[in-house]
Amino acid sequence: MTFRRVAIIGLGLQGGSIGLAVQSYLPEVFTTGTDIDPVTRARAAERGLVHKVCESSAEAAADADLIIFCVPPGAMGGAASEVRATLPPGAVVSDVGSSKQAVAKALSEALPGHLVIPAHPVAGTENSGPDAGFAQLFRNRWCIVTPPAQTDLVKLSSLVTFWEALGANVEIMDPEHHDLVLAVTSHLPHLIAYTIVGTASDLEEVTRSEVIKYSAGGFRDFTRIAASDPTMWRDVFLSNRDAVLTMLQRFTEDLTALQRAIRIGDSDMLFNHFARTRAIRRSIIEEGQDDARPDFGRADHDAATS
Ligand SMILES: NC(=O)c1ccc[n+]([C@@H]2O[C@H](COP(=O)([O-])OP(=O)(O)OC[C@H]3O[C@@H](n4cnc5c(N)ncnc54)[C@H](O)[C@@H]3O)[C@@H](O)[C@H]2O)c1
Ligand SMILES: O=C(O)C(=O)CC1(C(=O)O)C=CC(O)C=C1
């Protein structure tokens, strides 16, 4: 089967990008969408993020054969319960949440009897809201799909085909494993960025203006990440608590080892460690998951999408 009518709940970065990407790459698919925020609904209509912006989730869900929840992780259950009365029984329920076990549980409990196939496009920016979305967001990015153990294989394959049409490379993964992997590749880096930017701005001897004036490349890269949406990231850490705490423990041990190497002047240890991490950056670029240019290719991207 292929999806003909897709409902998008939440018209920010992710929902808006899906809506625009569907119009670019799946022109036969009709999209409805809504957002809890009336200003976002109005802007979504102006930008044409979906074919029809609805006043409520219940209205957007009626007739959908695929519904994708694009709201913060902590809002998934509440948003799903709003479509219980109108969502057609055969519709596939999916989402884009950054954590998978907690979100899958919230969606399944809110929509008993519906097939829930969670997904997570590992694609985003530090921007949020209805102006942040763009059709190319998912191109050559991974989308991790975490189906329940006994799932409908035809519908699973339709969801995979849907994401591939938007340009993503799809990987099927166990939700528990997803949460561990993303804790280290995405959630911990954000926590570190939030910490370092907060620490620098708190330091009394380095005034706020000096932090901004003399911001070196390393610090500036952290400020980009630390500008990400506070609601979303609060929810990510609370919904993936166990995996984040496991990885944080490991990170703290490794940081302590580097701290000791600096204190005792273990130059080999420092050099070998930095040589290993440099190689990781190179392999990410070789796999096409980032750009080698100093601005990560963002200037070209911004020019192409503005
Ligand atoms: N930002 C990223 O880089 C990124 C990447 C991959 C996945 N995600 C996941 O995507 C989801 C959305 O993130 P985003 O970056 O698009 O955030 P966003 O803030 O840009 O958009 C979320 C939208 O959801 C709306 N919303 C909140 N509660 C709602 C409800 N009950 N009903 C309808 N609308 C509601 C908000 O008003 C907002 O417009 C999150 O679960 C996040 O974990 C984000
Ligand atoms: O590129 C960025 O700015 C992001 O933060 C995107 C990013 C990440 O790579 O960590 C953030 C959250 C996700 O769920 C997926 C992708």
TrEMBL record:
Q: Does the keyword GTP-binding apply?
A: no
Q: Does the keyword Protein biosynthesis apply?
A: no
Record-linked Pfam families = PDH_C (PF20463), PDH_N (PF02153)
Gene3D superfamilies tied to this protein: 6-phosphogluconate dehydrogenase C-terminal like domain (1.10.3660.10), NAD(P)-binding Rossmann-like Domain (3.40.50.720)
Keywords, A to Z, come to: Oxidoreductase
Ranges for domain Prephenate/arogenate dehydrogenase come to 4-292
Q: What SUPFAM superfamilies does the entry give?
A: 6-phosphogluconate dehydrogenase C-terminal domain-like, NAD(P)-binding Rossmann-fold domains
User: What InterPro entries has UniProt attached to this entry?
Assistant: 6-PGluconate_DH-like_C_sf, NAD(P)-bd_dom_sf, PDH_C, PDH_N, Preph/Arog_dehydrog, Prephen_DH
Q: What is this protein called?
A: Prephenate/arogenate dehydrogenase family protein
Which species does the entry assign this protein to?
Answer: Novosphingobium rhizovicinum
